[in-house]
Amino acid sequence: TGDWTCNCVAPSTGSATAMVATCVLDECVANGTTCLMGQTCNDPDQTVTGDWTCECNAPTTGSGAQAAASCIQDECTANGMTCTMGTQTCNDPNTSPMSLGDWTCDCIAPATGSGTAMAATCTQVGETCECNA
């Protein structure tokens, strides 16, 4: 007669009268502690199970499907302009968020030189000067 109710079973939430209920499950409520410090749990569709992820918070990047993410922090993303303004290349040998300040600006051949966490002082090699006597 239309006076019946469908209720979702916990931990899902939702109900409807005289029809099938749309059940919603925020998987981050149950799984959010899987994400490590510096990560955020994301459940993009709460009507689908198994789609939650751990996302790295900026300035780190990375994602883990139903697991903690492996976050990286490429310091050249933030500091690379220091190098490219001086026609140098940026290199971050260790992108772990625990290894900061190890990025370098490296001179482009034939110049040589490197600067740690700063622009390099480049030395030109292979150039010769001729003097008039």
State the helical fraction. Answer: 10-25%
Beta-strand proportion: 15-25%
Radius of gyration, in Å, reads 27 Å
Quick one: biggest sheet? 3 strands, antiparallel
Description:
- With 133 residues, the protein is of the alpha+beta class.
- The chain is 11% helix and 21% strand.
- The chain is built from 2 helices and 8 strands; from the N terminus they run E-E-H-E-E-E-H-E-E-E.
- The strands form 3 sheets. A 3-stranded antiparallel beta sheet has the order 3-4-5. A 3-stranded antiparallel beta sheet has the order 6-7-8, with helices on one face.
- It is rod-shaped, with a radius of gyration of 27 Å.
Topology:
Elements: E1 5-7, E2 15-17, H1 27-31, E3 39-42, E4 53-56, E5 63-65, H2 75-84, E6 88-91, E7 104-107, E8 114-116
Antiparallel strand pairs: 1-2, 3-4, 4-5, 6-7, 7-8
List the main descriptive attributes of the protein structure presented here:
133 residues; alpha+beta; three-stranded antiparallel sheet
Short account of what is shown:
With 133 residues, the protein is α+β, with helices and mostly antiparallel strands.
